[in-house]
Design a protein that fits this description.
The chain is mostly helical and 284 residues long. Helices cover 73% and strands 0% of the residues. The longest helix has 30 residues.
């Protein structure tokens, strides 16, 4: 008896290596990144809203600093400046606020890192840079709210800026650029040290003296020797001088460009370092 023979398929089978899958268009990929960042920013803002005590403290602390410096040190410093102390002091406290506010961004990132949230993000198709950008931009939104409260408080104690609308926009943009630069510094600290408490302690230990040894609260010329030389050539002083000149309608010279150069240089150094540190911490 003859065995049935299998039918031979006439369909041609592909040979050779499989065809490469074309990458998504650059515009689509960029839109996905923007969408990721927007979602992560919204998540971090919701966390801020659910922790009102932290936001309230962020508002109260700089307000208390304005009152403290105005009524405790104002009388002594006014003898060595050519304007009222509130006009001299408020721009400095604005810069100090965005500088120290970066510690909150670092603490938020550390909370996600050591609380296991970043391990969950690793299982999702999310770019590492989007996670860092989400924390940073949400922190900038908080800084903007605090800055508005600071200006209102300064007006109550005698701050009388003479800037026009364009100067106000420029000063605000410079403050937010400074906040962004310091946020990357805080992000790197969060990724290198362990625990939220360590981030807050080390961040304040590094950034708070930087704001005090500057032109924020007293003229640099009144500081002795090496301290005055350091204060005159450090980034916080550059930003304070630029913001003060903008808000008080003083001659700008090259103060704004020096401040922008410091901020952009800080971002150029610390943003890539933060990205490398984040890759290493989330590799395993």
């Amino acid at each position: 008896m003859r065995r049935p023979t299998a039918e031979i398929s006439t369909v041609a089978r592909p040979t050779g290596p499989p065809a490469a899958i074309a990458p998504p268009p650059v515009a689509t990929s960029l839109w996905h990144r923007v969408d990721e960042i927007a979602v992560l920013v919204r998540r971090n803002l919701i966390h801020m809203r659910r922790r009102p005590a932290l936001l309230i403290f962020s508002l109260i602390e700089p307000v208390l600093l304005v009152l403290l410096f105005r009524f405790v040190f104002g009388g002594a410093v006014e003898m060595s400046i050519d304007t009222t102390y509130p006009n001299f002091m408020v721009p400095g406290i604005l810069v100090q606020t965005v500088t120290l506010g970066a510690v909150t961004i670092g603490a938020s990132l550390a909370r996600d890192l050591y609380g296991g949230m970043l391990d969950r993000f690793r299982s999702l198709p999310i770019a590492r840079a989007s996670v860092l950008a989400g924390h940073t931009i949400a922190g900038l939104a908080r800084s903007l709210l605090v800055l508005l409260a600071m200006v209102a408080t300064g007006a109550l104690v005698g701050f009388r800026p003479e800037a026009g609308p364009l100067a106000w926009v420029a000063a605000l943009a410079l403050l937010l650029l400074c906040a962004l630069a310091m946020a990357w510094v805080a992000a790197l600290i969060a990724l290198l040290v362990g625990g939220v408490e360590m981030v807050e302690t080390l961040g304040l230990s590094l950034l708070f003296p930087l704001t005090l040894v500057s032109s924020a609260f007293v003229p640099v010329e009144t500081m002795p020797g090496a301290v005055g030389a350091f204060a005159a050539h450090q980034p916080v002083t550059a930003v304070v001088d630029a913001v003060r000149a903008l808000l008080l309608d003083q001659p700008l010279g090259n103060t704004v460009w020096v401040a922008v150069a410091w901020a952009v240089g800080t971002i150029a150094v610390f943003a890539p370092l933060s990205a490398v540190a984040y890759r290493r911490r989330t590799r395993h």
